[in-house]
Amino acid sequence: MSCVRKTQKKYVLRDSPAYPANECCGMIKIGNDGHQYISKRAVTGICRWVPLVRTASEKPKAKKSISKKTTSKKTIAKKSKSTSRKHVKKAKSVSKKKASSSKKSKSKQRKQK
Protein backbone atom coordinates (compact mmCIF):
# COMPACT_ATOMS: atom_id res chain seq x y z
CA MET A 1 0.00 0.00 0.00
CA SER A 2 1.26 3.41 -0.91
CA CYS A 3 -0.18 6.76 0.02
CA VAL A 4 -0.52 8.37 -3.42
CA ARG A 5 -2.67 11.37 -4.36
CA LYS A 6 -5.63 10.40 -6.56
CA THR A 7 -7.13 12.54 -9.33
CA GLN A 8 -10.46 10.74 -9.68
CA LYS A 9 -13.65 12.78 -9.39
CA LYS A 10 -14.64 11.41 -5.96
CA TYR A 11 -11.26 12.41 -4.46
CA VAL A 12 -11.05 15.86 -6.07
CA LEU A 13 -14.55 17.10 -5.21
CA ARG A 14 -14.63 16.25 -1.49
CA ASP A 15 -13.34 18.41 1.39
CA SER A 16 -11.05 15.75 2.86
CA PRO A 17 -7.63 14.94 1.32
CA ALA A 18 -7.42 13.45 -2.17
CA TYR A 19 -5.80 10.28 -0.80
CA PRO A 20 -7.45 6.94 0.03
CA ALA A 21 -7.76 6.83 3.83
CA ASN A 22 -7.06 3.08 4.00
CA GLU A 23 -3.70 3.54 2.31
CA CYS A 24 -2.74 6.48 4.55
CA CYS A 25 -4.02 5.18 7.89
CA GLY A 26 -2.58 7.16 10.83
CA MET A 27 -1.20 9.96 8.64
CA ILE A 28 -2.03 13.66 8.74
CA LYS A 29 -2.75 15.35 5.41
CA ILE A 30 -4.14 18.68 4.27
CA GLY A 31 -7.60 18.39 2.74
CA ASN A 32 -8.95 19.98 -0.42
CA ASP A 33 -10.54 22.65 1.80
CA GLY A 34 -7.18 23.58 3.37
CA HIS A 35 -7.83 22.04 6.81
CA GLN A 36 -5.79 19.23 8.35
CA TYR A 37 -7.21 15.71 8.49
CA ILE A 38 -6.01 12.54 10.17
CA SER A 39 -6.81 9.09 8.87
CA LYS A 40 -8.22 7.11 11.83
CA ARG A 41 -9.23 3.47 11.97
CA ALA A 42 -12.99 3.13 12.58
CA VAL A 43 -14.73 0.40 14.61
CA THR A 44 -15.49 -1.49 11.41
CA GLY A 45 -11.77 -1.76 10.65
CA ILE A 46 -11.49 0.72 7.78
CA CYS A 47 -9.79 4.10 7.95
CA ARG A 48 -11.61 7.41 7.56
CA TRP A 49 -10.48 11.00 7.21
CA VAL A 50 -11.38 12.90 10.39
CA PRO A 51 -10.78 16.66 10.79
CA LEU A 52 -7.81 17.23 13.07
CA VAL A 53 -8.87 19.24 16.11
CA ARG A 54 -6.03 20.56 18.21
CA THR A 55 -6.40 21.38 21.88
CA ALA A 56 -5.40 24.75 23.33
CA SER A 57 -2.09 23.35 24.59
CA GLU A 58 -1.17 22.04 21.12
CA LYS A 59 -2.01 25.22 19.24
CA PRO A 60 0.96 27.45 18.43
CA LYS A 61 0.96 30.59 20.53
CA ALA A 62 0.61 34.00 18.97
CA LYS A 63 3.80 35.97 18.59
CA LYS A 64 3.21 38.62 21.21
CA SER A 65 6.81 38.55 22.39
CA ILE A 66 7.92 40.64 19.41
CA SER A 67 6.29 43.77 20.79
CA LYS A 68 7.73 43.04 24.23
CA LYS A 69 11.22 42.70 22.79
CA THR A 70 11.02 46.07 21.07
CA THR A 71 9.86 47.78 24.25
CA SER A 72 12.54 46.07 26.28
CA LYS A 73 15.21 47.26 23.85
CA LYS A 74 13.95 50.80 24.24
CA THR A 75 14.05 50.61 28.01
CA ILE A 76 17.53 49.12 27.88
CA ALA A 77 18.65 51.93 25.62
CA LYS A 78 17.18 54.50 27.99
CA LYS A 79 18.90 52.88 30.94
CA SER A 80 22.24 52.75 29.17
CA LYS A 81 21.98 56.42 28.21
CA SER A 82 21.26 57.47 31.78
CA THR A 83 24.14 55.40 33.14
CA SER A 84 26.51 56.76 30.51
CA ARG A 85 25.55 60.31 31.50
CA LYS A 86 26.38 59.54 35.12
CA HIS A 87 29.79 58.24 34.11
CA VAL A 88 30.42 61.38 32.07
CA LYS A 89 29.50 63.59 35.03
CA LYS A 90 31.78 61.61 37.32
CA ALA A 91 34.61 61.82 34.83
CA LYS A 92 34.20 65.58 34.52
CA SER A 93 34.20 66.04 38.28
CA VAL A 94 37.31 63.88 38.61
CA SER A 95 39.10 65.85 35.90
CA LYS A 96 38.13 69.13 37.62
CA LYS A 97 39.56 67.84 40.90
CA LYS A 98 42.77 66.86 39.16
CA ALA A 99 43.01 70.26 37.51
CA SER A 100 42.45 72.07 40.79
CA SER A 101 44.98 69.85 42.55
CA SER A 102 47.53 70.48 39.81
CA LYS A 103 46.97 74.25 40.20
CA LYS A 104 47.56 73.92 43.93
CA SER A 105 50.73 71.95 43.40
CA LYS A 106 51.99 74.56 40.93
CA SER A 107 51.28 77.34 43.40
CA LYS A 108 53.16 75.38 46.12
CA GLN A 109 56.12 74.95 43.82
CA ARG A 110 56.21 78.69 43.11
CA LYS A 111 56.11 79.48 46.81
CA GLN A 112 59.00 77.11 47.44
CA LYS A 113 61.14 78.84 44.82
Structural write-up:
With 113 residues, the chain is an alpha+beta fold. The chain has a domain at 9-51. It is built from 2 helices and 3 strands, in the order H-E-E-E-H. It has a 3-stranded antiparallel β-sheet, with no helix packed on it. A hairpin with a 5-residue loop joins strand 1 (28-30) and strand 2 (36-41). The mean pLDDT is 75.
> What is the rounded Rg?
37 Å
**Separation of the first and last Cα atoms:** 109 Å
Mean pLDDT: 75
Number of E-state strands: 3
- Sheet-strand content, in percent, reads 5-15%
Strand arrangement across the biggest beta sheet = 1-2-3
Total of DSSP H or I helical runs spanning 4+ residues: 2
